[in-house]
Request: fold
Amino acid sequence: MKALEVRNVSYRYPIGKSTVLEDISLTVDRGDFVAVIGRNGSGKTTLCNILRGFIPGFHKGKFQGEVFVEGRNIDEMSMGEIAIKIGFVFQNPFIQVSGVKKTVFNEVAYGLENLGIERDEIIPRVTSILEELKISELADKHPIDLSGGQRQRIALASVLVMDPDILIIDEPTSQLDPQGTEKVFEIIRLLKEKNKTIILVEHKMDLISEYANRVILLDDKRIIFDDKTENVLTNEAVPNHGVNLPQIAKVGLAYEKRTGKKLKRIPTTIDNAVSVFKELLQEEASDGRN
Amino acid sequence: MEGIKISNVSFSYENGFLAVDDVSLQIDSGENIAIVGQNGAGKTTFVKMFNGLLRPQQGTILVDGENTSDQTVAQLSKKVGYVFQNPGDQIFNRTVFDEIAYTLRYRKLPESEVEEKVMDAAELCGVTDDLKLNPYDLPFSLRKFVTIASVIAMGAKYIILDEPTAGQDLVGLERQRSIILELLKRGKTVVTITHDMEFVAENFERVVVMTDKKIIADDTCSEIFWNFEILEKSAIKQLPVSILAGRLGLNKKIVHIDQLIDCLERG
Reply:
């Protein structure tokens, strides 16, 4: 089943001189974990805003094309309906945190409260999400007193607590240390296991290669690549679009270049690489003996 | 005498939270140092004491032999420039040019000199095309370069970059690298806080690891990334290339792709 579909979308911001996205089409199936990559300014966040209906709903500007959420034209859905279907984690955690709640607990509960859910149901849901994200100890703190990394997790918690089927997550780890980053990816992996659909904007290719099953690369207003993770993240053209390859893929490509030998495949994950290189070392060892 | 000498400094915030606990570090003039460690380890608090933005309750900091406690932030900022983690904490002017020029004008430098310094810093940071724009109309990644340019323009000898790699794409990372190299070439000393371990392995010889308010290691990349006790304590993951080398049983402290391929080639 299609979770999201974008048909021939073009968009230009009201004050911007040039088009940000031009004639983009894509389909995201239910349960997909899609990473959206691209240089800064390539339209990743704009694409997220379009998928969530903030464009053209909230931001004005010149919009063309159609967006469908689970087969329904987004134009025919109210903001409330979209909000229940699609959870959106903003890139800047300072935007997401409402500023009206005095504790993290109430901040995370805000969305549920807004839906008119009773306090008895809100409390266990918020408690369990805080536990899942390992931020229970922040429950009584004032959101203002949090670090960038903590705010990022609160922002994620306040979206996850709503339990939407589709999640759009814009650079959730930019302020996090490696461990915090890994935790966020683990949580996203759990969401995928629950058959949630995930659209993730990220720069951390090592983690994308380990977790996402599909990658969309944006540049120059268009989709440059849209394919399985292992096909995109082994493509030597990717760095020309301002995006790093995962370190493991760089190892494979550099190995081929230096030695002139061809690997079975360019690995993108550590497990792949171990098997590719182990095999190679064994072959060479046995060639050496013969 | 030259360099920053930090001896047994501790710092607690007003609410009593101890953020840095009895830390010492010697930074020599011309060095290029990375500080790594978990969120909340005390890295930002630690470096904010170098230019007096925060004052240690215990211990001393000498910059080129002079005790920072005898100097105002304004005096110290001539020697030590700090680039905030969050550009929003730093930016307040209406155009990128005015933002970079602010301190220079405050110091009453002639406008021709201001312009020269602004242009130099803007070029180094890749924001020359954006000088007339409002900094807040720029994306986060470029705003960060505006703040770096402002600090470079001030001409400080010691430059502290607080998470310059956060949210940067490949182009941004390469620009960061070239900024650091150019600053070193100009005889500056650079201290960089970052979570990007690949960036650390590619650009720094000396790495300082902070965990839970203290420095727990101060060593080369290959020593740090192969010290499992330190990695565990500081929750730093080994680099993918190092994990791969380990799992292939290569008996070297590999932290670079080239080192791994050298090893593989020799069989």
Remarks:
- The domain at 4-237 of chain B is CATH 3.40.50.300 (Rossmann fold).
- Chain B has a mean pLDDT of 94.
- Residues 45 and 88 of chain B are 17 Å apart (CA to CA).
